[in-house]
Amino acid sequence: MKHNTSQPITEQSNEQTANLDKLSVPEIIRIMNAEDQSVAISVQQALPDIGAAVGGIVERMKRGGRLFYIGAGTSGRLGILDASECPPTFGVNRELVTGIIAGGEAAIMTAIENAEDDADAGARDIEAIITAADAVVGIAASGNTPYVIGAIRRAREIGALTAGVSCNQGARLSEAAQYAIEVPVGPEVVTGSTRLKAGTATKMVLNMITTTAMIKLGKVYGNLMVNVQATNLKLRDRVVRIVQDATGADQVTAAAHVEQADGDARLAILMIRFGIGKAKALEALQQSHDHFGDAVEWLEKESLA
């Protein structure tokens, strides 16, 4: 089966899976796994572009800007997923990272496929909530989704930082955005089903964007999630382990300080490490604008003064 080169590569037929419906279950999952292994390589090749975009996004966020994802269908849902995981993982305000999907909230659970064709709607949706201080990442597997391109063009006119994430080369989205991230993963196992390799690649890129941004904003210490929100038993146990790892304290000591700190690992770590009370630990975080690494440095300087 030959490729139709007029179509984006994400819409073209995969010659390796032409007889997919005739294969056994082990054969199907084996070929899916083989195709998926190429995704990480494609993402690796895009690392310079990803790094450039993340650097710009971090600078905006350090100055008080917010991050917005905008997409349609699977791309929009992936943006919402990544945004929704930032508050519990990194303890940030829910407004710091926001996902927008064509068709609104109803499109999260129910496909509203024609919503992606309206470029003006994308422009309206984005201009209603962003400022020039913000960063907007448009997500489109094809790189040609009108809704997303309309949003990115309007965001750029407003003065926001703009980036585009697509899984094709020479995408129109790349032309519209300041930072172009293209991860061409090739034809899908099921022709045109971009929730597969393209979805995996997109998830990997979005993980890099927010995780790196949160690290640079001081929401991670070493490799520890010191800002994690202890909202259930599993996470409360994790907070205690984080405090132990960061301070070398035993479980009883760590748990006692976590309780004094109302479940805030950062406060508990500072209290143990510097032998201070909760009020002084809070002051250190306030002085450092909630950047944990900077709070540690502030207290180290205080102890030497």
Polypeptide structure, described:
With 305 residues, the protein is an alpha/beta fold. It folds into two domains: 10-216, 3-Layer(aba) Sandwich (Rossmann fold); 233-304, Helicase, Ruva Protein, domain 3. The protein has 14 helices and five strands. It has a five-stranded parallel beta sheet with strand order 2-1-3-4-5, with helices on both faces. Strand 3, helix 7 and strand 4 form a beta-alpha-beta unit. The protein starts with 24 loop residues before the first helix and ends with a helix.
Quick structural gist:
The protein is of the alpha/beta class and 305 residues long.
Number of domains: 2
Mean pLDDT: 92
Based on Cα principal axes, name the global outline.
Answer: globular
Sequence of strands across the biggest β-sheet: 2-1-3-4-5
The parts where pLDDT drops under 50 for at least 5 residues are 1-5
Termini, distance in Å? 74 Å
**Helix-strand string:** HHEHHEHHEHEHEHHHHHH
Cα gyration radius (Å): 22 Å
CATH architecture descriptor text of the largest domain: 3-Layer(aba) Sandwich
> Largest beta sheet, briefly?
5 strands, parallel
Query: What is the helix content?
Result: 40-55%
Give the beta-strand count.
5
What's the level 1 CATH class of the largest domain?
Answer: Alpha Beta
| Helix and strand composition category | alpha/beta
Spell out the blueprint of helices and strands.
Blueprint: H1 25-45, H2 47-62, E1 67-71, H3 73-84, H4 86-90, E2 97-101, H5 106-109, H6 119-127, E3 135-139, H7 146-158, E4 161-166, H8 172-176, E5 179-182, H9 197-216, H10 233-247, H11 251-260, H12 265-274, H13 278-287, H14 292-304
Parallel strand pairs: 1-2, 1-3, 3-4, 4-5
Helix pairs in contact: 1-9, 2-9, 3-9, 6-7, 10-11, 10-12, 11-12, 12-13, 13-14
